[in-house]
Design a protein that fits this description.
alpha+beta
């Protein structure tokens, strides 16, 4: 996969029985592969897709990261508890 260009790789996907994934664009604070379990995979995929479209200017503004942060697990970290609602 390292030989693929940015336009050739799949960096966002969803399998309803297995969950979803996103490989964010490389930055200095690169989080690596982000995954979501099957129970929330479709919601995670939809929100991340909206976030990408929003960056292109085709979706109205909303804080999508606030919605997806409780759905995702960093591949290098153990899952954490969902924060209590206030």
């Amino acid at each position: 996969m390292d030989n693929l260009t940015e336009d050739e790789r799949i960096d966002l996907g969803c399998g309803l029985e297995h969950g979803a994934f996103e490989l964010p664009e490389h930055t200095s604070a690169d989080p690596g592969l982000v995954t979501a379990d099957a129970e929330v995979g479709l919601a995670f995929f939809a929100m991340r897709l909206l976030a990408r479209l929003q960056q292109m200017g085709t979706v109205s503004a909303m804080n999508i990261d606030a919605y997806t942060s409780v759905l995702a697990q960093r591949s290098r970290e153990l899952p954490t508890e969902v924060p209590a609602q206030q």
